[in-house]
Design a protein that fits this description.
Elements lengths: L11 E5 L3 H18 L6 E5 L3 H4 L5 H4 L7 H9 L4 E5 L11 E6 L7 E4 L14 E3 L3 H10 L4 E3 L5 H9 L5 E5 H6 L8 E3 L13 E6 L3 H8 L4 H17 L7 E8 L2 E9 L6 E9 L3 H16 L10
Parallel strand pairs: 1-2, 1-3, 6-7, 6-8
Antiparallel strand pairs: 3-10, 4-10, 5-8, 5-9, 11-12, 12-13
Helix pairs in contact: 9-10
Length: 316
Amino acid sequence: MSIALPSPDAPLRIGTRGSPLALAQAHETRDRLAAAFDLPVSAFEVVRIKTTGDAVLDRPLKEIGGKGLFTREIEQALIDGAIDIAVHSMKDMPVAQPGGLTLDTYLPREDMRDAFVSHRHEALADLPKGTVVGTSSLRRRAQLLVRRPDLTVVEFRGNVQTRLKKLEDRVADATFLAMAGLNRLDMAHVARGPIAPEDMLPAVAQGAIGIERRQHDTRTADMLAAIHHAPTATLLAAERAFLAELDGSCETPIAGLAEVDGGTLRLRGEILRPDGSECLSDDASAPVEDGPELGREMARRLLARAGPGFFDWRAA
């Protein structure tokens, strides 16, 4: 059965946030679709949508909502028919989608590691006591403080360019960014270097781009199937099952990374107290096809070890 392809007169509308990184991800999606179906880029329209997470920059994410802060308005545009697909950073995506939407297309995963960025220091291990480090990520904050409680962590919201400007203005002496984002922006040179997962386990699904569509839009489903990367889907199925069982949000510091070697999937998971006073981790392997169940089992083990109130903020 042939697909009714988009054209310059009736383009496929791609919804995205408006940051340079979000646009780079939307353009990668557009270019892959154009190449897969031998279409001009004019057969696609990139639609910028401002989200709550982009609009409210003066408060920590935990004070204004969960992961949906970066997706809610885009998903509503998809439901309303204002766009045909939505392109997301998968680390920002809640584990459940609104009714009528589905998320089943992934592009090849980029570098999943965090990057250490500083104008004054070469590496995380070189930071002197009391150094001010900026981050808006509860995961990174907790991971840093559990290893280096002698450092000072400050709120650091904004896109990549905004955070780099804050470093120049000495709001902080160091920060962390995702290597994937820097690579997609051709800005890998701003990082002092990637941080090994053994030193800082990345966020669940970090480095992966997901494409969301209306559940019953068969034309779009058929088009997206041409660019779907099944190996990335395998990794994310395990990681997001781990996250779902933990009921993870922007208010819960959680890290997870799946890797495949032959027919075996290895999953590393980590949960932390928000104040960085404790970290619980696990590392297990299973056949690739059992990845989601491995994720769920690991989450249950960690929750049993953590006990009630583990993710609650302790009084200063």
